[in-house]
Structures are given as C-alpha cells and as structure tokens.
Amino acid sequence: MARMSAFQRLVTKYQRDVDFLIIYIEEAHPSDGWVTTDSPYSIPQHRSLEDRVSAARVLQQGAPECALVLDTMTNSSSSAYGAYFERLYIIQSGTIMYQGGRGPDGYQVSEVRTWLERYDEH
User: Fold this and answer.
1) Is 77 helix (H, G, I), strand (E, B) or coil?
2) What CATH number did the domain enclosing 77 receive?
3) Four-CA torsion 59, 64, 13, 80, nearest 10 degrees
4) Is the pTM of this model over 0.85?
5) 8-32 residue pLDDT tens
6) Total domains present in the chain
7) Cβ within 8 Å of residue 25, ≥6 positions away
8) 21-33 burial, b if ≥16 CB within 10 A, otherwise e?
9) What are the tens digits of pLDDT across the range 33-60?
10) Residue in 89, 84, 81, 105 with CA at minimum distance from that of residue 3
11) Nearest to residue 70, comparing CAs of 88, 48, 91?
12) Which residues fall within 8 angstroms of residue 56, CB to CB, at 6 or more apart?
C-alpha cells in the first residue's frame, strides 16, 4: 500500500504533463494461491475477465486519478513487458525511456520521480 501511495503522489504532481496508465495483470499473490502475510487485499486468482475487472476496481481505489486498463486473460502485456509481479516504465513517443526492475524489490517509484524531475528541468 505504501508504494501505491507513493505512486499516487507522483500521479498527482505530474498529471498535467504526463499520461499515467496502470495495466492490471494477473494477481501475484492470490488468496487461493501463493499468499503473503503483508497483502492488504484478499483477491483470488482471476478465472474470468469479470474476476479481473473486480480486482482492478479494488486496485484503482489506491490511484483514482490514474487511467487503468486490464491485461488479457492470456497475460500478453505482462509477457511482452516482463511485468510479473509489477514493473514501472516511462514511454515517450513510443520509445521506452525507463524500465524499472521487477517488483517487488525493483519497483522504485523514487526512480521514476527522479527521471521526471530531470526531464522537467529541460
């Protein structure tokens, strides 16, 4: 939850200049699978698109000002971007300018903030 709060603060600060998008992929720690004790949510594995939509609505409460889309049930976006569990990207004019490490350890909102601050100076 702390990382989502940090992400939301970034969205709030830069939303006038930057388009933010969350792509919700398959649940990393489903309540009926590999469960962690620190998860603020209890979301079962997505067995249908409707399941994924319901779970995404829960996620969007943490970043209500950010656009949210869902990966396909075949997880094509997750596969294409190596996003499993979570990953941050900056894409400018169709080019990947920043690719963060894989989450949870590589999910560093501070790196995105630093990149945006440097870009904002130019």
Assistant:
1) helix
2) 3.40.30.10
3) 50
4) no
5) 999 999 999 899 998 888 876 667 6
6) 1
7) 71, 75, 77, 78, 83, 84, 86
8) ebbbbbbebbeee
9) 666 666 666 777 888 999 989 888 888 8
10) 105
11) 48
12) 24, 68, 70
The domain containing residue 26 runs over which residues? 2-121
Q: What does the alpha-carbon distance between residue 6 and residue 119 come to, in Å, rounded to a whole number? A: 19
The structure tokens listed for 75 are 């997880």
In order, the DSSP letters of 38-65 are T-S---PPP-SHHHHHHHHHHHHTTSTT
- Chain centre distance of CA 2: 13
Residue type, 67: A
Predicted local confidence at residue 88, as pLDDT: 93
CA–CA distance, 112 with 81 (Å, rounded to integer) = 17
User: What is the helix (H) or strand (E) element at residue 121, kind and residue range?
Assistant: helix 109-121
